[in-house]
Amino acid sequence: MRNVRQAAVPQVQLVTFKVGGEEFGLDVFAVHEIRRWEGVTPVPRMPAFVEGVLEVRGDVLPVIDLRRRFEVAGVVYDDDTRIVLVESEREKLGLVVDSVTEVLRAPETSISAPPAYIRGLAAEFVKGIVRLESRLVILLDLERILSSDERIALEGAQLVPAAEDGAAGGA
Fold first, then answer.
1. In angstroms, rounded to a whole number, what is the distance separating the alpha carbons of residues 123 and 116?
2. E strand or H helix at 29
3. pLDDT at position 71, please?
4. 11-19 sheet: strands from edge to edge
5. Residues forming a β-bridge with 105
6. pLDDT tens digits for 14-67?
7. CB neighbours (10 Å) of residue 153?
8. How far apart are CA 54 and CA 86, in angstroms?
């Protein structure tokens, strides 16, 4: 047997943020912009966690309040509140968070599957847990922030483009 040099451990970069006192993370490549909280335009008959819409460079994006989405009590907007503009394979969204903490580099080996005991509404959004020396960061699955039914409701309100929409619209 020969001695093989071990390759460098692949790293992930995450934008981390707080929601209801817990620290969450998203892949840095999914995050396009971080904005200070600004008023959004409310849309009638939307789920309670849809704060409204925001116009960003010609696009109208639905804005999801993650505190409401995760059923965290006491939604208060302050100077630390941010809107994280993200893009998944399916849509562009704004996510309201309590504060953005940092851009973090972590070894891929620090990510583990979520524990089986994680239950409740937020559990379906958890992709994994990033274990660091002094803290845990909950890795969100951006593709699951909205369910199929919720996407259909937003498409019906024309807040996100329909998945099968491949042609440019007319008149």
1. 9
2. none
3. 85
4. 99-107, 11-19, 22-27, 136-140, 126-131, 111-112
5. 13
6. 999 999 989 999 999 999 999 999 889 998 888 889 999 999 998 889 999 999
7. 18
8. 13
Question: Within 13 Å, how many C-alpha atoms sit on residue 108's CB side?
Answer: 4
Tell me if 69 sits within 8 A of 49, measured CB to CB.
yes
Distance CA 142, CA 87 (A): 8
Quick check: 150 pLDDT over 70? yes
Task: Report phi then psi at 54, rounded to 5.
Answer: -135, 135
3-state secondary structure of 127: strand
Chain segment 102-127, per-residue pLDDT in tens: 999 999 999 988 777 765 555 678 88
| Phi, psi values for residue 34, rounded to 5° | -125, 125
Dihedral over Cα of 44, 50, 55, 58: its sign: negative
Side chain identity at 61, as an amino acid letter? L
Q: How far, CA to CA in Å, does 149 sit from each of 60, 69, 94, 96, 155?
A: 20, 15, 19, 21, 10
Sign of the four-CA dihedral 97, 50, 29, 26: positive
Query: Distance (Å, rounded) from C-alpha 50 to C-alpha 43?
Result: 8
What secondary structure letter does DSSP report for 41?
B
Helix H or strand E encompassing 15: strand 11-19
Q: What gap in Å lies between CA 155 and CA 147, rounded to an integer?
A: 12
Measure the CA–CA gap between 20 and 72, rounded to whole angstroms: 6
